[in-house]
Amino acid sequence: MNEITRVFLKPKEEKEIAQGFPWIFDNEISSVKFLDKGGIKTSSLEECNVKDGECVEVYTNAGGFLGSGIINRTSKITVRIISQEHADKILADRKSFIDKLVRQAVNIRRLSFAEEDSYRLIYGEADFLPGLIVERFNAEGKVYLVVQFLALACEVFREEILASLKENCRPYAIYERSDASVREKEGLAERNGWIGKSGSEIITILENGIRLEIDIARGQKTGYFLDQKFNRREVARICKGKRVLDAFTHTGAFGLNAFAGGAREVISVDISEDAVEMVNKNIQLNNAENKVKAVCADVFDLLKKYESEGEKFDVIILDPPAFTKSAKLIQKAYGGYKEINLRAMRLLNEGGLLVTCSCSYYFDENTFYSMIMHSAVDSHKRVQILQKRGAGPDHPVLLGYPKSEYLKCAICRVL
């Protein structure tokens, strides 16, 4: 054995890894073989002295090679697979290894998006760069990148990643949003700010012909949710002449797409005063003041109020934040999703359209559509699912890694 550390799994733990799942948890590891001062040593994960951030090789219990990854004993996700190649090939030329992955991600997006578009450039594990998120925003001709290093597995390649992004994307500026709490679980401090040259923290992008002002420094996550672009375009197509309620609006994008599609009235709702302020700016940017109104309110309370007042809509859009970020909270989340959906169904005119979404991976597709069905039962409605939709092509799904397919978007006819 050379100096490369080898991680051996417990019996029968290799199946998911062989199918493409890129995470290895601490309780799946049988032993670690590593180079110690006295030579080659084999020990348990707890007793080994392997340095976090080291590139290791992963093997089945019987000794079959599975891939190479970055070890982090601070995290429950102890190894994140980065390649099916042996570690020595990766370490021999780190720059070329990272540059190849970045170029692949860039070229895949160019199949579906134009130069003037904004899109997710790198989608973590689904692009074989675990923990790395990169958004590409075209802000009136200037390309801004917003990056998130969310795991040690990408943090150790930080300099190579940034160099490759600069070379392959020629950005005007790069802003870092590594300010997510998940970094603490990785033993990393939160970090945000400009990397090198500064730009504007408030930028304007064009999506489906709509001008949208977004805050890349203080907005949720990376400032804007690019995954719904094509779903918003579909909403524009179905809203002509309709009265529309856009709930959990964030930047106002769904509502403004509805406006662009010819909606006669749009009410966009968010609980955040900062979000509503941004929505009002976006309404003005698109000269939509005569048809679109932003309301600052708790959506749960507002739906109850509208129901008691007898309000009716032709289209209702529900795009809430993730109600659960863990499997333990699925039942609580189910109640929240069900409440807003059944109340929305009661507010729709006969044959009205409900566009309902969930961005929580843990709230899986079967649970999501079961929730819609039970919402219909409890609101005494019948529902036709007209379309089942998900994220755009800038969010590729990696087979064997179901977390990469997280977004559900259903367009329903309510009777």
Brief overview:
With 415 residues, the protein is of the alpha/beta class.
Describe the structure in your own words.
- The mean pLDDT is 95.
- The longest helix has 18 residues.
- This protein starts with 5 loop residues before the first strand and ends with a strand.
- With 415 residues, the protein is α/β, with parallel strands linked by helices.
- Helix 3 packs across helix 5, helix 7 crosses helix 8 and helix 10 packs parallel to helix 11.
- It has twelve helices and 21 strands.
- The protein is 29% helix and 31% strand.
- The strands form four sheets. Strands 2-7-6-5-1-3-4 form a seven-stranded mixed sheet.
- Strand 5 and strand 6 form a beta hairpin.
Q: What is the subunit arrangement here?
A: single chain
Number of helices: 12
Distance between the termini: 68 Å
Mean pLDDT: 95
Taken as a percent bin, the fraction of beta residues is 25-35%
Read across the widest sheet, the strand sequence of neighbours is: 2-7-6-5-1-3-4
The amount of helix comes to: 25-40%
Judging from the principal axes of the Cα atoms, what is the shape? Answer: globular
Write down how many β-strands occur, each being a DSSP E stretch of 2 or more residues.
Answer: 21
- Unreliable residue stretches: none
- Major β-sheet annotation: 7 strands, mixed
Q: What's the alpha carbon Rg, rounded to whole Å?
A: 23 Å
